[in-house]
Amino acid sequence: MKFFKSFLKEWGGFFLILALIGLSRVFLWSNVRVEGHSMDPTLADNEILFVVKHLPVDRYDIVVAHEDAENKDIVKRVIGLPGDKIRYENDKLYINDQETEEPYLAEYLKRFKEDKLQSTYTGSNWDGKKGEYFRSIAEKSQAFTLDANFNTSFTFTIPEGEYLLLGDNRLVSNDSRHVGTFKAKDIVGEAKFRFWPIDRIGTF
């Protein structure tokens, strides 16, 4: 009994901290690794993000959502909120009939207009089938943001309690245009901080 009391006195605080960290990991935060290039250039393949759970979902948040079809978590940006009418016309976004800027797309939109991203997907990082596939998609595309049927103009009406999630790299992102809107319960949390790689650590 004395040994147990002594052990608790010496190590109890340490194990309490570990328990609190473990519980917070389950209920309050998590981390996720970015897979693929759907969020280029905002986020890159294999970056690791710190995700906060149970935050209100706001437009333009970068969130982690669970995709049931492939049973995996994906990282996308919130474009449409419950009840919104979202319309794209030749790379112009209209939210409830109001034209809205998308500054996070500016870099790749500029490259698309210059050479349809051919130089972006060329080089040592894009050797092989992946680079060839991305270049082929971009070359044939009439706009940077298309629907699943390659239309340059399309509309979504977002059901109540659901969200329209799109990747920043619109030409290669598999998102709500293909799998539909996401229910609130499917949104795991908001990505708030990038802690890997070291040279890109920080907010985004």
Arithmetic mean pLDDT:
87
Number of H- or I-type helical stretches: 4
- The backbone outline, from C-alpha atoms, is globular
Helix proportion range: 25-40%
Structure in words:
With about 200 residues, the protein is α+β, with helices and mostly antiparallel strands. It has helices at about 1-25, 105-115, 130-140, 175-180, and strands at about 30-35, 50, 60-65, 70-80, 85-90, 90-95, 100, 155, 160-165, 180-185, 185-195. The protein is built from four helices and eleven strands, in the order H-E-E-E-E-E-E-E-H-H-E-E-H-E-E. The longest helix has 26 residues, at about 1-25. The chain is globular and about 70 Å long. The model is unreliable at about 20-25 (pLDDT under 50).
Task: Provide the descriptors you would attach to this structure in a database record.
four-stranded antiparallel sheet, globular, seven-stranded antiparallel sheet, single chain, alpha+beta, 4 helices
SSE map:
Elements: H1 2-27, E1 29-33, E2 48-52, E3 62-67, E4 72-80, E5 85-89, E6 92-95, E7 98-100, H2 106-115, H3 129-140, E8 153-157, E9 162-166, H4 176-179, E10 182-183, E11 187-196
Question: Briefly, what is this?
Answer:
This protein is α+β, with helices and mostly antiparallel strands.
